[in-house]
Design a protein that fits this description.
This is Membrane or secreted protein. This protein is α+β, with helices and mostly antiparallel strands and about 210 residues long. The chain is about 45% helix and about 20% strand. The strands form two sheets. Strands 1, 2, 3, 4, 5, 6 and 9 form a seven-stranded mixed β-sheet that branches. The longest helix has about 30 residues.
Amino acid sequence: MKKAFVLIVLFVFPLVAYLFFASGINNFGRLPILTENIPNVSQLDNEVNLDNKITILGFLGSEIGQKKGNAFNLNQKIYKRFSDFNDFQIVMVVPKGTEDKVKALKNELGTLSDVEKWNFAYGSEAEIKAFFRGLKTNMYLDENLGTPYVYIIDKSRNLRGRNDDEEEGTKYGFNTNSVAELNNKMEDDVKIILAEYRLALKKNNANRSK
């Protein structure tokens, strides 16, 4: 009996463990698409584009000073960690007329990190509301056209998120008021989508070399 048990431990268990992890690797790397082909923010501001970028999309609203803490949380927990990725960017949609407030915010963020990949798109109230509706989420903008939530947009302008979140079920966005949510959920999801694109790039390079 002891010999049989030892054989199981030495040979069967490692095989089962290998098959389990191999299956996990094969299924890894896809963050669910919740909304396909959202509008391009270039419709509001032609100096900003979502195409071919992995974008963290947010709406700061007109009272940017009130959302300063949200921007700092996002900068420290997400932007600084992933900004070295070539196709990564943050895009904040803001109302026209907030240019001076945006400049002040960028100056403050610039004391903490390089803000080269922080982009701001300006639009009218009607344009911002229409663009937000195009995300097709279960969320709303406040009276200042802002929200503490940010969204992961892939290179094909698909909104990515979770369809099996333990608290929300379908999770469209991530609350920048919560450092814990940025650390425990959003960081993981950004890692997944970056890994997805790295894997696709490796496969493309391997196919070209054949």
